[in-house]
Specification:
CATH topology of the largest domain: Rossmann fold
CATH superfamily of the largest domain: P-loop containing nucleotide triphosphate hydrolases
Low-confidence stretches: 10-61, 180-196, 460-465
CATH class of the largest domain: Alpha Beta
Strand order of the largest sheet: 6-7-5-8-9-10
Largest sheet: 6 strands, mixed
Mean pLDDT: 77
Helix content: 40-55%
């Protein structure tokens, strides 16, 4: 495989460093040559030799060309591809015909012939016209970024629902890119001496794909109805849902396993999790919550995938709290955060309560870890070692508003063994006193459980929100 990166007027990090070094060297030479100049004259020379860089500097959340290509390389690895060459094209603007220009196309054609590559992958989306032109000019197949992501999703889909969602995304991407020439575009013929239906092969393919898309949407709508019924049954018992969201390969599944004790697939490959997983966990307050693991997001996530996986991502929409899992060891964490927030905004859940979880702190040195632990509003954890998990559970406890924690005083006869067992299992007991056949308890616990024990409350109206 040959990887093709694109740099649209944004200088790479290495080229910026080289140019900065050249300017500094030039400034040193000028200082030696003109050391007889006054300080004011030298300052003028420095100002003219080093132009202002603020306009050319890239935003803090924007990947440079090398970082983008490195992420693309990880995607290719997740798809099982072997890279034989990488090409970077730097242009001021996109070429409407081939994206990269005819000269670079010829160069890639030569590389493909010499390396016997069977696939050229572009770290950019290609229009239908660009795709056709490139396939005509290159001696091998051509795929763009979206097609690669769709291929990875197709490889990792395990359940019937996941396969339906991936197929729908693939067909919606393929539909505007159907094309053909020669006999493939000819009208479908009839019998001898009769007139054909007057429909081209291309039109027939489009009609069949549209029919299949409609069928898939109906099946996924049925999935959505089933999920809605399941959520309604869960809502009969006030158990809030907490959803894990984040960039792909940020460690969501590893953290999910750490918190729940489950054994869901955890992999360094991108998009290892496609189907949502739901498990119950107990918080320090003894409240139960459902934890949901979801598909990871990525930069420029294809809109067709967001639409197709809406049935799956509804778990995010229904969650009371979102855990935004971030890779603390990533060199472009702010860019990843921005991309995740864009998808959350598209799902209309950006305003939900959100806890920023900085994962993989075990990969940082002591100085970096100390800096993270001091940051307010974020929780630093290591899903692999379990460090920081207790603080994360406490943060989830504080963020929940459904079924709030209440304090109460209860007086329970000792023969009510089932009631005392329920208190021990679902509440925090702060004090316990025995008075004859009665047990007097000061407890804190979920409002739903305290409400069911109303007849054992010491005084009516005693309950108060915890911390009030």
């Amino acid at each position: 495989m040959i990887l093709v990166g694109l740099d649209l007027g944004v200088r790479s990090r290495s080229s910026r460093a080289a140019q900065t070094g050249a300017r500094e060297a030039a400034m040193c030479a000028e200082t030696v040559a003109f050391d007889s100049f006054s300080e004011s004259s030298l300052e003028i020379l420095r100002t003219e030799a080093i132009p202002a860089r603020t306009a050319a500097a890239r935003p803090a959340t924007e990947l440079d060309a090398e970082e983008s290509l490195a992420e693309f390389r990880e995607l290719v690895g997740s798809a099982g591809g072997v890279v034989v060459a990488e090409v970077m094209q730097r242009r001021g603007r996109l070429d409407p015909a081939t994206l990269i220009g005819s000269g670079k196309v010829e160069e890639i054609s030569g590389i493909a012939a010499s390396t016997e590559a069977d696939l050229v992958l572009f770290d950019h989306d290609l229009s239908p016209t660009q795709l056709r032109n490139l396939e005509a000019a290159l001696p091998c197949r051509v795929l763009d970024r979206t097609q690669l992501i769709l291929d990875i999703f197709a490889r990792h889909a395990r359940t019937a629902e996941g396969k339906l969602q991936v197929e729908l995304a693939q067909l919606e991407y393929l539909l505007p890119r159907l094309g053909g020439k020669g006999k493939a575009m000819s009208q479908l013929g009839g019998g001898i001496g009769t007139r054909g239906p007057g429909e081209t092969k291309l039109e027939t393919d489009r009609r069949q794909i549209k029919r299949r898309i409609d069928h898939l949407k109906e099946e996924l709508e049925q999935v959505r109805r089933v999920r809605k019924q399941q959520r309604q049954r869960r809502e009969a018992v006030p158990v809030p849902t907490v959803a894990l969201v984040g960039y792909t390969n940020a460690g969501k599944s590893t953290l999910f396993n750490q918190l729940t004790g489950a054994q869901v697939l955890q992999s360094a490959k991108m998009f290892a999790t496609l189907d949502p997983k739901l498990r119950a966990i107990e918080l320090p307050s003894r409240r139960k919550v459902l934890l949901s693991d979801t598909v990871g997001f990525i930069r420029n996530l294809p809109h067709t995938l967001v639409t197709s996986f809406r049935a799956t991502l509804e778990e995010v929409a229904q969650a009371e709290v979102l855990l935004h899992i971030r890779d603390a060891a990533s060199t472009y964490g702010e860019e990843q955060k921005t991309q995740v927030e864009r998808v959350l905004d598209e799902l209309e859940v950006l305003s939900k309560p959100r806890i920023e979880v900085l994962n993989k702190i075990d990969l940082l040195d002591e100085h970096e870890r100390a800096g993270l632990l001091e940051r307010s509003g974020e929780v630093a954890v290591s899903a692999r070692t379990g460090e920081g998990v207790a603080a994360l559970l406490a943060a989830i406890d504080s963020a929940l508003h459904t079924d709030p924690l209440l304090e109460a005083e209860l007086c329970v006869p000792q023969q009510e063994g089932a009631v005392l067992a329920a208190i021990e299992a679902g509440m925090t007991v702060h004090s316990r006193e025995y008075e004859g056949n009665l047990v007097r308890l000061t407890v804190s616990g979920p409002a739903s459980l305290i409400g069911r024990l109303r007849r054992f409350r010491l005084r009516d109206g005693q309950d108060a929100p915890l911390g009030s």
